[in-house]
Amino acid sequence: xxxxxxxxxxxxxxxxxxxxxxxxxxxxxxxxxxxxxxxxxxxxxxxxxxxxxxxxxxxxxxxxxxxxxxxxxxxxxxxxxxxxxxxxxxxxxxxxxxxxxxxxxxxxxxxxxxxxxxxxxxxxxxxxxxxxxxxxxxxxxxxxxxxxxxxxxxxxxxxxxxxxxxxxxxxxxxxxxxxxxxxxxxxxxxxxxxxxxxxxxxxxxxxxxxxxxxxxxxxxxxxxxxxxxxxxxxxxxxxxxxxxxxxxxxxxxxxxxxxxxxxxxxxxxxxxxxxxxxxxxxxxxxxxxxxxxxxxxxxxxxxxxxxxxxxxxxxxxxxxxxxxxxxxxxxxxxxxxxxxxxxxxxxxxxxxxxxxxxxxxxxx
Length: 364
Ligand code: OGA
Ligand code: NI
Known about the structure:
Layout: E1 9-10, E2 23-24, H1 27-32, E3 55-57, E4 62-64, H2 65-70, H3 73-89, E5 92-96, H4 102-116, H5 120-124, E6 135-139, E7 153-160, H6 172-197, H7 204-208, E8 216-223, E9 235-238, E10 244-249, E11 255-259, E12 262-265, E13 273-277, H8 279-284, E14 294-296, E15 304-311, E16 318-319, E17 338-339, H9 340-348, H10 356-359
Helix pairs in contact: 3-6, 4-6
The structure holds N-oxalylglycine and nickel (II) ion.
N-oxalylglycine binds next to β8, β14 and β15.
């Protein structure tokens, strides 16, 4: 039987079996309690050979944020054009000169690491609850419905319109409050530029998606060293819900994005944000800008910490393609409307698998 202090996540027993549900502990615990772990448990085998996938290194588009906010009108329209091109060609880009201080980014990553370093007993307060709980930590993505687990522990916190924070570790609340305010400003400015790049008014997305009450989630990810990295997966190929996600990590590579049928290894510039388009920008733009598949690989040497801040509409917004982008002949709505809250709960409560949540609202 598992030690009392472990974070336990109930996993389903198969419907026909009478065996009780088994429980799994977090990956950090698994790695640290087995100093000589040389192979992974079979329920972490995602694929028998991930090294067969073709992975290439390519430069992502780079967006100079300062030109968007304080450039001349000419510079701004040039960068709006580049932003539109990055959204259309890649769905993923790097943002530089964003003004968020480097030490705040470092303190935030450090605070996440310190959260994962809390004792299992301390973390248990936030463990294994419902997807609508404002603070939730756990392992894999959704261990209660998964058969194969991911080599990842996570912390998810709702930070806007209502700000939440775990009470521990010391300083987490202050740092995350500061950091999330800053990334929210960056996301809102980017969304103004993106609105314009779609030929809409600057404040179109802001107004229609009710960003004043926009839903923002902090997601900290911990990927401990994995003895068989070619068999396990930190996060499987998926797209994010919401409009824009801003990601940073502790400079240990692992993020890969899908581009033109290949996996591209992402090497971010120092002090940059990796930004990707979420499903709701795909819906709003009627598929002109697509949410991009990405995944997190693991390695056998170092712990990787990443922090994704997802920015979405307000939870009560029904998101459907912008009527301004449709016409009756050639551009019909390709997605049906769904309330963001329902979509988010659907995605978070399912097995994470490519773009299966978006497929639910796609017009067939
Ligand atoms: C996510 C995500 C990738 C990473 O949290 O949604 O895609 O590199 N993370 O950790
Ligand atoms: Ni993601």
